[in-house]
Specification:
Layout lengths: L7 E7 L3 E8 L8 E2 L3 E6 L3 E7 L2 E7 L5 E3 L4 E6 L5 E8 L2
Antiparallel strand pairs: 1-2, 2-9, 3-8, 4-7, 4-9, 5-6, 5-8
Amino acid sequence: MPARPEAHATVQVDTERVRVTEWRFAPGAETGWHRHAFDYVVVPITNGTLLLETLTGNLTAELKLGHSYARQAGVEHNVINAGDDESAFIEVEIKP
C-alpha cells in the first residue's frame, strides 16, 4: 500500500494556556499516529468524512461545518481524510 500524503498543520496560536492549530487534509491525507497530551476542541471549517484509525479498530466521523466537538487528553489515533475533497478543521488544545 503506498504511503498516504501528510495532512498540513499550521499553528496559529501557542501560549502557556492554549494551542490553536489549523489542519488541512487533501483527499487521503493523514496526521500519522499520535496521542493527545491535552483536552481539545475541534471546530470543522469544512464538511467531510474522516477515517479514524484507533487501537480498538477503525471509525468513521463526519465533519459538519461549524459543529464543534470536544475530546479528553489521551486519545490516540491516526486521522485520515476519507472523502474526495479537502477537509479542514481548527483544533484548540487546552493546556493545564
